[in-house]
Amino acid sequence: MGVYVYCLKQDYCHASLIKGRAFENEWFKLEPAGNVIIKGTHCKGYAWDGCSPKLKMKDIYVGTFEGVLNFDTGQSKTYYASLIHDVFYQFSRELKSFIKRREVDREFYIILKSNSFAFAGLYYIAVRLFGWMFWGK
Predict the structure, then answer these.
(1) Closest to 122 in 3D by CA, of 48, 51, 68, 17
(2) What distance in Å separates the CA atoms of residue 107 and residue 89, rounded to the nearest whole number?
(3) Which of 24, 96, 115, 137 could anchor a disulfide with 77, C-beta 3.0 to 4.6 Å?
(4) Helix or strand or coil: residue 132?
(5) Domain presence at residue 11
(6) pTM of whole model > 0.85?
(7) How far apart are CA 29 and CA 1, in angstroms?
(8) Residue 1 pLDDT > 60
(9) What distance in Å separates the CA atoms of residue 13 and residue 39, rounded to the nearest whole number?
(10) Domain count, the chain
(11) Residue 52: which domain range?
């Protein structure tokens, strides 16, 4: 896609509900205990587009709203949910044989709720309705 809103420059660990499976590549690692490690220190960092879809017009992004600032994390309320969701979708071709799309979408919803994002339900419905177009591609 080439429209990046965020770039993670440090490694980030998330305690996922997706347990009992393992995967690792140059960008992320899933441990059997459920820890997801995004390797932000790899190359120039892990970049992603936040909540999709988005278009870039010069220096303006047009598309799905990212949410207001979460004062506890210093990031938008959708930042961590979109990070975890996007990394799983990005590598879904390798993951789809042992991870279900609904598990990843549910993780997205839970992270949005934990960040008190008012539109968590709406965003969850959107990924459930349209995620099939990207999962495993």
Answers:
(1) 51
(2) 12
(3) 115
(4) helix
(5) yes
(6) yes
(7) 23
(8) no
(9) 9
(10) 1
(11) 6-133
